[in-house]
Amino acid sequence: MTIGFPKSPRLSLPSWQGFFRLPVMDRYIATELIPPFLFGVGAFSSLGVSIDALFELIRRVTESGLPISIALQVLALKFPQFIAYAFPMSILLANLMTYSRLSSDSELVALKACGVSVYRMVLPALMVCLIVTGITFAFNEIIVPSANYQATVTLAKALNDENPSFQEHNILYQEFKQVEQPNGKKEESLARIFHAKEFDGNEMKGLTILDFSQTGLDQIVSAKTAVWNAGEKAWDFFDGTIYVVSSDGSFRNIVKFDNQRLKLPRAPLDLATQSRDYNEMNIAQSLEYLELLKQSGSEEKIQKLRVRINQRYALPFVCVAFGLVGAALGARLDRGGRSTSFAISLVIIFTYYLLTVVFGSIAQLGVITPFLGAWLPNLFGLSAAIWLLVRSSR
Hints:
Helices cover about 60% and strands about 20% of the residues. By secondary structure, it is of the alpha+beta class. Among the domains are: about 20-160 and about 315-335 and about 385-394, no CATH class; about 170-270, no CATH class. Strands 1-2-3-4-5-6 form a six-stranded antiparallel sheet.
């Protein structure tokens, strides 16, 4: 006879694999979305490259003698930008095709008969859209600006166009300093105004500097040319005059010089040599350039850059609006194939980008804020998606 001891009950620990396991319906719809999404990325990015970059490079090859190998290299570097543009378009097409197929095969009717609401049916689409939104944002920040800049540099080197005759006209830079007030608070006060008529890539020409670093206007420096001395971290001015101004506004002393070194910020050179286009800067670089532009006093450039920065944030989130619109429209299409979905996608995409251009231009004019100019097209898309979903649920 054997004596047995009762087995102690095993503790049931949660399975992480089960925790992350999606319901069958969600996995099925998400899996159905992937092939048309990849098809859309390939189709839309190829179409964009062909229209925007390919024809221009062919013209460069035939007219400017650009080597075909360099043209292919530039074309490859341009591709990431159009892939990023294709992500929102592709998620729209994928949802249209997937949900229209589910509707035509009566699978959505079967789900409704089981008590599944329209809002629950589009939940997998929303999850996929949020993932694509993150991928689009990362793509736009990490890959696209660097690739675009390398494409510009590669093309410039091949065409021997690295040193244009001038980079900028009328460079204006304002330097501020912190001044402690009698009440103990610190406020910004104008220290210097730096103005150059022209920058030719090597030296500033026609310079005038107003020095307010002391109380009132202290001195005026005028010079024909100036170059930045990187070793000394100062400016070398040539063939100029220094006017020392007294407190009553009269010239106390006038000094002519052939060469004069002044300890001034390098920021005017950074402002003049900023060669990157908006599409060649990520958000961090754009914000740095914005701080420089604020010192230049060019309100038009400042407003334009603010709009572009807000559009950088807004563009990835259009994936959510496009995805919900596509799912809601697809669920209402009884019969639809690739051609129908593709045509509807083109109409929606054209409308969205038209709104983006219109509201962006209005924001640049200062009629609305840069935030509204960038996000209003997305809000219109989300409003349309909600309206379509509400109608589909009835």
